[in-house]
Write a structure and sequence with these properties.
The complex is a heterodimer.
Chain A (H helix, E strand, L loop, with lengths): L2 E12 L38 H13 L3 E2 L2 E2 L2 E4 L9 E4 L6 E9 L5 E13 L3 E4 L6 E4 L6 E7 L6 H18 L11 E11 L8 E6 L2 H20 L7 E6 L4 E7 L9 E2 L6 E2 L4 H7 L5 H10 L4 H9 L1 H12 L4 H17 L8 H12 L5 H13 L4 H7 L8 H14 L1 H8 L5 H12 L6 H14 L1
Parallel strand pairs in A: 12-13
Antiparallel strand pairs in A: 1-10, 1-11, 2-6, 3-16, 4-5, 4-15, 6-7, 7-10, 8-9, 11-12, 13-14
Helix pairs in contact in A: 1-4, 2-3, 5-6, 6-8, 7-8, 7-9, 12-14, 12-15, 13-14, 14-15
Chain B lengths: L8 H9 L5 H19 L2 E4 L15 E5 L26 H8 L3 E6 L33 H8 L5 E6 L5 H7 L2 E4 L19 E6 L2 H11 L24 E5 L9 H16 L3 E5 L4 H19 L17 H12 L2 H14 L4 H25 L2 E5 L14 H6 L5 H6 L2 E9 L5 E8 L4 H15 L12
Parallel strand pairs in B: 2-3, 2-4, 7-8, 7-9
Antiparallel strand pairs in B: 1-3, 4-6, 5-6, 5-10, 9-11, 10-11
Helix pairs in contact in B: 4-5, 6-14, 8-10, 8-11
The chains are: A alpha+beta, B alpha/beta.
Chain lengths: 472, 470
Amino acid sequence: MKFETVIGLEIHVELATRTKLFCDCENAFGGDQNTHCCPVCLGLPGSLPVINKHVVEFAVMTGLALDCTIDPESRMDRKNYHYPDMTKGFQTSQRYRPICTNGCLAFTSEDGTERRVGITEIHMEEDAGKLIHEGTRPVSSADYNRAAVPLIEIVTEPDLRSAEDARIFLAELRDILLELGVSDCRMEEGSMRCDVNVSVREVGGPLGTRTEIKNVNSFRSITRAIAYESRRQRELIERGGVVEQRTLRWDDAAGRTTTMRDKENSNDYRYFPEPDLPPIVLPDGMVEQLRAGLPKMPMARRAEYEAVGVPAADARLIAQTRWMRTLLDGALKLRADARTVSNTLIGPLSAFVNEGMEIPFTGAEMAEYAALVAQNKINSNGAKTLLEEMMKGGKQVDEIVREKSLLQVDDTEALKAVAVEVVSENPAAVESYLSGKEKAFTALMGAAMKKTRGKANPAVMRELILSLIVKE
Amino acid sequence: MAEIYTLTVTELKQALADKSLSAKEIWAAFNARIDAADPHIGAFLTRTEQSPPTLEGPLSGIPFAIKDAFCTNGVRTTAGSRILDNFVPPYTATVVERLEQAGMASLGKLSMDEFAMGNANEHCAFGPVCNPQDLARVPGGSSGGSAAAVAAGMAPFALGSDTGGSVRQPAAFCGVVGFKPTYGLLSRYGLIAYASSLDTPGLLTRSVKDAQLLLPVLSGHDRHDSTSLAEAPAPARSVKGLRVGLPKEYFGEGVAQEVKVAVLRAAQTLRDLGAEVSDCSLPMTKYALPVYYLLACAEASSNLARYDGVRYGMRAEGADWSDMMTKTRTTYFGEEVKRRIMLGTFVLSAGYYDAYYLKAQKGRTLIRAEFDRAFEAYDLLLTPTSPVTAWERGSITDPISAYAADICTVSVNLGGLSAASIPCGRDSLGLPVGAQLIGNRMSDNTVLAAAAALEEAIGWDYTPVCGGKA
């Protein structure tokens, strides 16, 4: 039998709003325990929720970026279950009328094929607090700073077929959310969390029974968990076994899934409409206004960069990195050579930034620099010096070029005089080169560069020296 | 001059304005009255220890009391339940805050059926309340403490809450005024929830004029309650020419003859005042009780899930958190609360949701639509508040009979309507009968204006009593 793996994802994303979902408490990671709390997020008797309109905006923006249908009148529902990190005995979520439905996200698989993943829905809900288990004491404490922090849950169709595709899809999704500015998407801090639904089936056959792996919290764990669970299911079926619908937990240390609960013990959440919150009616024009304000999506950006000649790998990195994008976009406006700019961004400028330096110049200056390099007006030595000076800030590009006289010398007559000098002053090197030691030529070039203080056009100089030697 | 505790809010305001009384004297008089009467009645669960009030405001110096369903910062708030025996909220309900901002001072917190589930105040975990009209009888509920306190002159005004009649019915049983405003007119923020889509803060007073005086103080949009209305209610219309309907379903089987007679006499009085009174029919009324109990219990099962012993309130010991939670809820919730949580959990369960919860929601929609149609033909409806007068404590033990006594009040909550109950007569035992005036949403001022006219014509004697005597 030929099997394929079928994967669907449920991604929880903490929204980077200033305040929580239903109250004015600060929405911030960490903080002293139970300091970002009030009667509302603690669910004290008599308290009532009031929805944060920025959460609604963020959800709509995400829905628009993922090509969803936006419901102008969505509703909140209660999902009833008990857990000590839940302050009200229910989670306020959206079950019957989620704010966004029926979207999709395209990504490029490793083999270069474009794939599309359906987005079933995006709904808004509240996060729970955190339980803290200290040492071996049979006591846990609860920290409700995270209680009622706003989340969106993005639910995909079972459209993914490999662990690798799942990873690339998630990376694409994360880039989009970062671009929108709706979340910081830090998996290690839990601001982006993923539940994975996995099943296997014969290629082309009906869908198999799925298992759900809860809270897999790094890209690496996601690929490992999918690979493990897919193999486990295949082997089970090949042995004649039957996959049971279960909720699993990923044990990263052991590299395996373990059962959290089986179907018998699945919860009945008794969803019903939240009576404390009226329907969320989007004001006229809100969706169009948010659509108009959407930033360019990473995939579109990458395609544009590639179209002007930036290599694919560089295009992805530049699209993801704000300072690179700012410089490239600014330079491209002035018709700078894209390849020259991207090489400079990925190479020397990244090195500066990695050392902790900030770029003090604009895309326009980047364009001037690129023009000098691309039109061969300065050579690589000059370019290096120029960039170092530009990083110091405060001076115009032409000012630096003038002061440091960085312009390449292309004047053949002037360079010929230098070549003649070099050849006559270095007979040993000439001899050596002519006897077949090609390396000796480097010494001649070095001497020529020294005499011109690095400004000679290396190609011209090379031709001149060669013509002199061969003539002899 | 009359005893201070017999004065209404309006009279106290006048006495303070013309300086015939001081805030200090008033405070002392009501506390003395509580000392004297409450041992016989048992309305107060917690009394507020404080010196005479010095708060500034238009109602400065006038005391009031609060149903224990409203959170009060620093003052124990139990909702009549042992599970909140030790709960001291860190915040104050909006309606209480508004009264305090107007200068009023709280005398304390009043008994109620546990989590407002009941209509006789016999489900309070801290003991029953005696009806000041007849101490052997129930005061009604769930705001039984509030009605009894006002009827006995232990407070000129008390806050109550009305989910299915919990302000109006005890008002009727105790012979005082009970007013349930339009849903959303008074903020629910800080009112411990029983059934969110039905819960409404309400007023208990000894004159309709007091309710008219206090309503503007209490109402107005509250940004902490998403169901709070932004608009103000419509201006009052005069009784003359008002079209008043008498829905026959409210005068049918199960309604005591003496109650019918008293309410129909009130109808005649309205006619005499110039209203056009005629019979009408609201056939959907027969679905009101099941719809109400299904929806209220469904919401309650969720609203009361937070009492798990983890963060506040009472906690029983257990092997782990789940065991602790189960034991906490088993130990500290009363029988009626557990019954309604189980009923509500059932109707929301997979496989039953459509048949019960959704069906009940559809029923609610039909009842609302029927009221909307009725209010095209009528400005107000006049009905009994309760099919019977106050019964003897312990005489109704089976839940179905108890629920059936809510027949005249629950529809109003399902419709989100405005309604007032005023005493309109006595039965042969001398027990008060309540007449209920129902108006559409936002017709609160007309409901109160008609109630005030009717009250004046009836000339009810509100003199506070304690066991039938002052």
